[in-house]
Amino acid sequence: MAKTRLLRPFAVAAAAAVLAATAATPALAADRDAPALPTPDTAGVLSALQATTAAGAPGAFAVIRDHGDDDRTRSLTVGKADLDGTAMNSAWRFRVGSNSKMFNAVLVMQLVEEGRIDLDKPLRDYLPAGTLPDGWTMTGRQVMEHRAGIYDHTNDLLEQSGEETTAAFEARIRSKVYTPAEMVAMSVKHGIQYTPGSRYSYSNTDFVLLGLAVEHLTGRPYADVLRERIIEPLGLEQTSFVVPDQRIAGDHITGYLTNDDRTKPLLDSTEQTGSWVWSAGAVISSAEDLDRFLTALMAGGSGGLVSDDSLHQMEAALPTPTAKISYGLGLRRISLTCGDVYGHGGIVQGFQTQSFTTPDGRRSVVVFANASNNGSVTQGLMNALEPAFCGKKPAVQDHRGVQNQRSVQVDRGLPVVEDTRI
Q1: What's the pLDDT band for 261 if we cut at 50, 70, 90?
Q2: Do residues 375 and 407 make contact, with C-beta atoms less than 8 angstroms apart?
Q3: Catalytic residue at 98?
Q4: Confidence of residue 393 (pLDDT cuts 50, 70, 90)
Q5: Which H or E run contains 256?
Q6: Fewer CB within 10 Å, N- or C-terminus of the chain?
């Protein structure tokens, strides 16, 4: 078993060399005979981004990257990166929110492959003593699937009666430093919410617990494990996990929190500790790095992150209460008209991101806006995914044989995902 653990960094490093030499396109040569990808409907994507800024975001962007025989990057930006008037820049860094859960899930699956954790045994067996009460027997798999019945501790931090979102942010989020154990304790006091495995309910505490398991099993700080196993081997130069440092280093987009009272101005929420979501949502990255990560992940064993079997387990998504949305092991699956895509969304004060890829990794799409606490902004980003992946909706003919080019979004639209209030 020790041999397996020693091989992991070298295997990932070797894969990173392949990625560097092939512009992050591992294992795509075997797909040369695959059908051509639909041409993105850039006009449709741009329209969705414009709706996003019209809804209240200072700016938005979409980056569509194709890999394989026809490497190509399409970048569309609208609006501003900050309220000082700087144009939106899709190459800059930002807080990715719950996209962090994909990174967390990869670390867990690596430990599964090394025999250090069994996902079908109680997660409490792999946590520091006393983290979860006796009798809390939900498995690691149930926790990764958000089917463990564990209360989301962020409910206690975000939804205090009589307090506006911006006031709650300043009082409990921006500068406050929480330990993972403190966040778990907030959750545990509410008790088990339902019989584990019986239903789906998104909980950030699930991935705080998984981060604690990573630390406990490796004996290393989460940030170090993330850097050593994913960030450095893949050459993710714009990705970091700096909790509890509040700043985003280097060129970055400014994030703005929308006040519950829409007559009040947006609040610059860029600087924050990130400790309140920790391993569930505190990664800082860029569109380019998210593409590189997703491409390596979807390559399975040849990508250097997880084995083919681990990837298949991550992709084995179960339905959620939200139409067209399923959830696997740290991966969300969205059903579009041209097929399924895998990835995650992320919303953290001031920043919204949706990052998805085709199952073969040949196309990734990252859409972003620099405003949160605004469901219409979220809907605008979701509406950009269909035209980005699937292209233009085919023209239909009426009973007279006349083509009808009306922009009908009803059967092509995507619902807002269930973790949007973050």
Answers
A1: confident
A2: no
A3: yes
A4: confident
A5: strand 256-257
A6: N
